[in-house]
Each structure stands twice: as structure tokens, then as C-alpha cells.
Amino acid sequence: MRDLLKNATARLDSWSTDYAAVTGVSGTRLLLGFVGLMYYVGQYQERNYLFGPDGVLPHEEFTAQLTGFSLYALSASPWYFQLLYHLGIAVALAVTLGVGGRPGLALHWVLLWSVYQRQPGLLDGGDNLAYVVIPFLLLTRCYDRFALPTGLANRLVQRLPGRLRALSVPFHNLGVLMVAVQICLVYVVSGLYKVMGEEWQDGTALFYIMRVAEFELPGWSNLVYENDLLVVLGTYGTVAFLVYFPLGVLVPALRPWAAVASICFHLSIAFFMGLTGFALTMIACDLVFLSGALDRALLWARGRLPRTWAAGAADTAVPAALPEAERPSGESGTRTAAKPV
């Protein structure tokens, strides 16, 4: 009992001093930025028709039925619409490249919410998760990896008091935990909801889903729904995976395998059903469970880069390796290395 209490205390202490899953949440930020950029660019040719003040949903009707907030509701001017839409593209690109820090990420959330509210008929479900996860990322150091170095954030952080900088560790880990809990809730609730359906209970749900015209992939979907074995295995396998995914991520040895299985599951959804935005949003959140594997992959890739490139990558990608006076977080101790999840 004493050893168990000691281990629990040590883990709690490490969560207040070591950054967890820095690479994972950085990948989450990159993918969520890319999903937003993909949405803007994918609708660019038809933007006036889909989102414009004189488009398929006129500005007057849009403002009348709007229940939340949207920056697109502030003006019916075509110039304002064009400015806002192109600003959204620029900010989404900046988030993808890792430029702008938390203010840029917060602006991306506001602009993405606004454009999603402007035309709800185009949404595929991934928007709901993005609404929740992006504010969690604001607590984390999601710009420490996969980001273009600017040095501005480091200079601003150094101006903060030391005690305030020390709070960045527990806040970061809290944000990581909230992302992990949120994605687990999505899986469990989705799985339990499916269990109540008759088609999911008798093993035929996949047959009906893949025959829906909106989601059918000609030439491929029939290969699945015409095979009874694939239908039954796919139906029951989906429910089992969704319900037991949280148990998999609770076991460190199973965590990366559960995340890889989830990524493969959502890649199949993107391929067969065309729900690319939804699939990439779910995959983005799964990356918090693959932070250790991503760290090892980066080290492997760095070892095969030219020596000058590898040195530059090491200087910008591993904050713990910096001298104490130059650490982005400004901690004074030695326990500042990012801890994989």
C-alpha cells in the first residue's frame, strides 16, 4: 500500500514538473489547422454561392436563423465577406505551419466557428470535436514541434515572472488530459449509442450504412456490403473498438496500438464514406496517444538528415536540451523534458 501511494505521488509530481505529449499535441494543432485550411480551399471556387451574402443562404435568412455567433453575421457587404474568408485561409495556414502561437490559434477557432455556422449543411461532424479541442490546445505547448521557429514567443515568455512561467507545466498537462478524456468520451458514447440500435445488435448495420447513396464509394463499397462475413465483422468490430478504446489507452503497452487502430479505422471512413474532415479531426486527437512514437520517429529522421539540418532541428524541437537561460518556458529546474504519453 505504501509503495502504491509512493508511485501515485511520484506520478502526480511528474505531471506538475514534466511536459507530457508535447509532440502529440503539436501534431494535433498541425492537423486541425490543415483541416480548416482544407475546408476553406475545398470550397474556394464556390465560396460566393455557399457563404456569400447573396448566395444560397442570403444574409437576411442567415442572421434570422443564427442561434450562436458568427463574424459573417456582422455585415452583408461582399467586401467584408471576402476579407473574412481570406483571413480565415491565412490564419488556418499559419496554424498549420506553427506561426502565430496561441493568439493565432484562438483566432483560428473564432474564424472556423464563424464559417461553420455560416453554412451548417456542409458539416460532417468533425466540427463539433474541433470546437471543443482547440480551446484545450490553448493551454498546451502545441507550438513546440512541427512549427516554424520565430523566436518571438521565447522573448515574450522570458519577460514573465518565474512563478507564472512555472504554471505552464500543469496547465499544459491539464490541456493534454482534457483532449485525451474528450476523445475517449466520443468513442464510448458513440459505441454505447450504437449498442442500442437493432442493426448493430444483429450485425447488419454496416450493410445499410455503406449502401447510403451519400456515403457510397462506387466500385468499392459493394465489395464490403456484398460480403456477409465482412459486414458482420465490421459491425461488431466497430462497436467493440469504440467501447473498449479507453481501456486500451489506459494500458501504456496497448496505448500506441489502440491509437494506430483508431487511425486506421478513421482512414477507412475517409476512404469509403468521404468524411475526410471528420476522419482527420479524429486522427488529430489520437496523436496525443502517439507522442512517444512520434518522438522516436523524429529522432530516427533526424539521424538521417544532413548534420547541419539535424543540429538545427535539435535546437528548435527539444526545449529541454537548451541552456537554462534560453528555455522557452523559463523553468529553473532540470525536469523540463517533454514526457511522452
What's the SSE blueprint?
Layout: H1 2-17, E1 19-20, H2 22-42, H3 47-51, H4 59-65, H5 78-97, H6 101-118, H7 126-137, H8 152-158, H9 162-166, H10 168-195, H11 198-202, H12 205-209, H13 221-225, H14 228-250, H15 255-273, H16 276-286, H17 291-303, H18 307-317, E2 338-339
Parallel strand pairs: 1-2
Helix pairs in contact: 2-5, 2-16, 2-17, 5-6, 6-7, 7-10, 7-16, 10-14, 14-15, 15-16
Domain HTTM-like: 14-294
Keywords: Membrane, Transmembrane, Transmembrane helix
Protein name: HTTM domain-containing protein
Q: Main traits of this protein?
A:
341 residues; mainly alpha
Question: What does the largest sheet look like?
Answer: 2 strands, parallel
The H-and-E topology, N to C, reads as HEHHHHHHHHHHHHHHHHHE
Helix content range:
55-70%
| Rg on CA atoms, Å | 22 Å
* Proportion of strand residues: under 5%
Query: What's the number of extended β-strand segments?
Result: 2
Mean pLDDT: 84
How many discrete domains?
A: 1
The best one-word shape is: globular
Strand order of the largest sheet: 1-2
| Helix-strand makeup class | mainly alpha
| Low-pLDDT segments, ≥5 res | 311-337
